């Protein structure tokens, strides 16, 4: 598998100012109140648009939820692709990918929170799409670990798949424990986690 695997289907989408306001309002309310606790009228009021404007761009609340998920995974895949395009040695590339993912997740913690808590609300087709994109990220990250093993940058202890599950699993759980006002900045936390993962790789 090629390490550079960011398909056009998940490329970040350019949106109008009205779309961005609607999505920002939906994201904030989903994070604060949950999907079930948020009404279309509440989103319209928070975005200061009409229902007609909302339905011009989005079919339903479920459509908004999917777009939030899509935005998150598209950004993550694009960021990973940017790291791989730099042609860094495996150890530096893995550090850059992991620290970038942690900092980005911290900066977009509400998206990550909604993603983790509400993903089960998606219909079957959209759930498959999200899972395929997440699997693509997982496989690309794992391939980077495997490349480091082949080139002698990492030891041959813990299997690459286990390293990937542990590293990405920790990031996926950030909404449960990360606080922007905590004792460590996102950047410092990212470097410490990368140190931990790389130390485990030898």
From TrEMBL:
<dbReference type="GO" id="GO:0000976">
    <property type="term" value="F:transcription cis-regulatory region binding"/>
</dbReference>
<protein>
    <submittedName>
        <fullName>TetR/AcrR family transcriptional regulator</fullName>
    </submittedName>
</protein>
<feature type="domain" description="HTH tetR-type">
    <location>
        <begin position="16"/>
        <end position="76"/>
    </location>
</feature>
<dbReference type="GO" id="GO:0003700">
    <property type="term" value="F:DNA-binding transcription factor activity"/>
</dbReference>
<feature type="DNA-binding region" description="H-T-H motif">
    <location>
        <begin position="39"/>
        <end position="58"/>
    </location>
</feature>
<dbReference type="InterPro" id="IPR001647">
    <property type="entry name" value="HTH_TetR"/>
</dbReference>
<dbReference type="InterPro" id="IPR036271">
    <property type="entry name" value="Tet_transcr_reg_TetR-rel_C_sf"/>
</dbReference>
<dbReference type="InterPro" id="IPR050109">
    <property type="entry name" value="HTH-type_TetR-like_transc_reg"/>
</dbReference>
<dbReference type="InterPro" id="IPR041490">
    <property type="entry name" value="KstR2_TetR_C"/>
</dbReference>
<keyword id="KW-0238">DNA-binding</keyword>
<dbReference type="Pfam" id="PF00440">
    <property type="entry name" value="TetR_N"/>
</dbReference>
<dbReference type="Pfam" id="PF17932">
    <property type="entry name" value="TetR_C_24"/>
</dbReference>
<keyword id="KW-0805">Transcription regulation</keyword>
<dbReference type="InterPro" id="IPR009057">
    <property type="entry name" value="Homeodomain-like_sf"/>
</dbReference>
<keyword id="KW-0804">Transcription</keyword>
<keyword id="KW-0678">Repressor</keyword>
<dbReference type="InterPro" id="IPR023772">
    <property type="entry name" value="DNA-bd_HTH_TetR-type_CS"/>
</dbReference>
